[in-house]
Amino acid sequence: MFISTSPQESDINVRLYSLPVGKVKLMIGRTLGSIGCLFLSASTTLLFSKYVYGANWSGNILLILGVIFIYSAIIVGLGMIIGRFVSSYTTALIIVMLLMIIFGIISGAVTPESSIPGLNYFIPNYHAQLLIFGTIYSYPKEVIIESGIGLFAFLIGVYGILIGIIRRDKNAHI
Length: 174
Description:
Structural class: mainly alpha
Shape: globular
Largest sheet: none
Number of helices: 7
Oligomer: single chain
Radius of gyration: 18 Å
Helix content: over 70%
Strand content: under 5%
């Protein structure tokens, strides 16, 4: 979200916009950097808990890391979309925090009973959770494939919306 809401007059933006790099390349670099940072922190936590604490990550670790990477990309994209619609950093941060809580409750992160069956298919948390737990606890392949398709659909949808927003905005400040 900070990628989209950083003020134009900040020192780093003044330096960035004076470089001979297009705004699209700048956006791609910032997006990939954010995805990489989020993925690195999540995968470090996963691997540390698996090998140091002996947590039950007994599924295909590459599939779990792939899910974490795709989920990181979706979350960064959602933050960028919110940052494009809300110009204030504080307001965008509050919206992101509220969405984080709402997505968690709807997808069943608090307790499986809190999951809302009709609505949880529209939440990326639900699909990532099914893929990760499906890998660990050997869910049926149909569930894993359906969740994988759902996660990819979110990825394509989020970045499709983001590209549409950025292409339509002539004065993109990304």
